[in-house]
Amino acid sequence: MTREQLEARIRSRPHVQTKSPEQLTYSPEFPNLNTVMQNDVDGAWLCYGCGHENPLVHREGEHPFGYLDCGRCGSIFSGKDEPTQVLGHHVLEGAELTPVPSFASDNPVPYGIICPRCGLSHRGQRVAGPSFDKGLIGVSFSGIRCHCGTLSHTSWYRFSVGPSHDWRGDQIRALRRATTRRLERRTRELRVNTDASQPDFMDARE
Ligand SMILES: [Zn+2]
Ligand SMILES: [Zn+2]
């Protein structure tokens, strides 16, 4: 199966609707704009490198967000990129079997990993049986073979599926927040790099 065929299959899966009380009462900053923009999208991530806005749609099935590689520069989503709330990072790193707060068993597992080679997202698997504290259940991210052939590893980026009401309520504001975070991060890194290069600069001048 080619990537295009896999993407078509992922797109055919039902959209997972997340509703919240805020969604019903939220008053958007630009209500008219909101209705004409993409309403079947749950959020977006801004590429750290090029700033491209990549849409996020949460669908049922084993690939919750499809491919997370930048539509403009091709770089794969990592912790540097800035997502809106639907692509969260509220999950422990490292352990093969990860305790997470209990969720309804008929809901898709709201946790996943991203293949660092091709960017395909994979849903974690609910694991029955392990004895975690009350209110916690186990999700496993191990033994998942990506479409590109790579076997999942504990170092892969893990995500939680968050609410989409920031985007659905007011996507201009949600995007503006992500844009600000991206600029702040880039400014910080620029400053760090400048500081690091300072000694060389000073040496060269002397
Ligand atoms: Zn990019
Ligand atoms: Zn892959």
UniProtKB/TrEMBL annotation:
Domain annotation Probable double zinc ribbon: ranges: 43-173
The protein's name in its UniProt record: Probable double zinc ribbon domain-containing protein
Lineage, highest ranks first: Eukaryota, Fungi, Dikarya, Ascomycota, Pezizomycotina
Chain segments carrying region Disordered: 1-27
Compositionally biased region (Polar residues): 17-27
Ranges of Basic and acidic residues composition bias in the record: 1-10
The organism's place on the tree of life at top rank: Eukaryota
